[in-house]
Design goal:
By secondary structure, the protein is of the alpha/beta class. The chain is 43% helix and 16% strand. The strands form three sheets. It has a seven-stranded parallel sheet with strand order 3-2-1-6-7-8-9, sandwiched between helices. The protein has a six-stranded parallel sheet with strand order 12-11-10-13-14-15, with helices on both faces. A two-stranded antiparallel sheet has the order 4-5. It is globular and about 65 Å long.
Length: 400
């Protein structure tokens, strides 16, 4: 039996939004399953989020709904108008949902699929802190996670957290968060052909002599860029900070930079080659708060890293002493100490960067990310799709 024979005919993915960095994954996944119909549903971000959306998903069909938000930027409930209509029209055999209990329309989608005897997979960073700490709401969250036929998380550490909460190991899968390395390879080729480009790129970005510390991400409080600026201002060796990104916290951070670190440069959002240039000029990449694929991008550019919470994948991708540092979340003193150690030995930093490239090429590729999801889909489908209940209720979704 071929791989396609073990997969369902129609697979649906729900996403709140699809940022530009996520498009290569869906394109690659569709290519991996040529005989399976793959379709994606998502809404749009709020304007204040400053999220750069993907333009298309290649050969993968993409259905747009409307996101209706209730609440503030950090704490909100979400209803996706059009999700139920899409489920009726497409009738996926397996559905992959963002496993976020605040997405109210996903609760309805989960119930509807389960009523039809069709499996649902949750895509999540890992269990919420409230579930791990046993605080208020923990029983609801545990029941919520158990309602999925499978859970996909980015890291082995995230998987261990789920099994530690009592979820069956065979229902938890790892799909490492990954990026398309094409721009990194292009930048490397350009520098191989003309090493003087690096100096010109630094000048274009307003950078002077001395080491450059890079942050890439959406500018919002949970990213803790303020902590990075303060830690850099304390360094005995002068450093420059290059901040790439936009978001609601940018005015506050720029004001803080002007006050304590005039060598900080805020250059807004960058994509493609422009973003690659920012990685190329950096000596160290720092993610002081939560975050996602910027860590993987830094590794593909062969950069040493210092990371706090990130998206959970840092436990698999950052090997302390070999390619970077794991910093204590929210601890400015610890970050300041890491930066002092890093800047004291440029040769060691370069060696760490080479190790970063080796690690990411082994641990976090689009191929491995796709394989993680395909394994989850295959397992939940083979264990549930051909049961008597699934055959009897197979028409429920179509009939609504």
């Amino acid at each position: 039996m071929s791989e396609d024979d073990s997969l369902p005919g129609r697979i649906g993915f729900q996403q709140r939004v699809i940022p530009i960095y996520r498009a290569p994954f869906f394109e690659h996944l569709a290519e991996r399953m040529p005989r399976t119909r793959l379709q994606v549903f998502s809404g749009r971000p709020r304007k204040a989020e400053a999220v750069a959306e993907a333009n298309d998903l290649g050969e993968c069909p993409w259905v747009r709904g409307r996101n209706c938000y209730l609440g503030g930027e950090r704490k909100y409930l979400l209803w996706q108008s059009g999700l139920e209509r899409w489920l009726t029209a497409y009738a996926p055999h397996v559905l992959v949902l963002e496993a976020n209990p605040r997405y109210l329309s996903n609760l309805l989608a989960l119930w509807r699929m389960r009523s039809a005897g069709r499996p649902v997979i949750g895509w999540t960073l890992g269990p919420a802190r409230r579930a791990r700490r046993g605080s208020d709401g923990a029983p609801f969250l545990l029941n919520y996670y158990r309602s999925f036929d499978g859970l996909v998380t980015y890291s082995k550490a995230g998987a261990r957290l789920f099994t530690g909460l009592g979820l069956a190991e065979e229902r938890v899968f790892v799909a490492p968060n990954a990026v398309q390395p094409g721009d990194a390879r292009r930048v490397t080729r350009m520098l191989d052909e003309d090493a003087t480009l690096l100096f010109r790129w630094r000048e274009d970005l307003g950078l002077g002599a001395g080491p450059v510390i890079l942050f890439v991400g959406r500018l919002q409080p949970r990213k803790r860029v303020d902590l990075l600026l303060r830690a850099c201002a304390r360094q005995t060796r002068p450093v420059q900070v290059l901040v790439v990104g936009d978001g609601p916290d940018r005015p506050r951070l720029e004001a803080l930079g002007e006050e304590i670190l005039p060598r900080a440069r805020f250059v807004g959002e960058r994509f493609g080659l422009d973003l690659g240039i920012c990685f190329a000029v950096a000596d160290l990449f720092v993610m002081p708060g939560t975050g996602g694929l910027a860590l993987q991008e830094a590794l593909t550019y062969g950069k040493p890293v210092a990371v706090a919470e990130a998206d959970g994948s840092q436990a698999d991708l950052v090997q302390p002493g070999l390619n970077g540092w794991l910093m204590l979340p929210g601890d400015e003193d610890h970050l300041a100490m890491i930066l002092e150690e890093a800047m004291a030995n440029p040769a060691r930093l370069r060696a760490m960067g080479e190790m970063s490239l080796t690690i990411v090429e082994h641990e976090a590729t689009l191929e491995r990310m796709s394989e993680g999801f395909i394994s989850a889909i295959r397992e939940v489908w083979s264990s549930k799709a051909h049961t008597p209940r699934a055959r009897v209720t197979s028409a429920v979704l179509r009939k609504g």
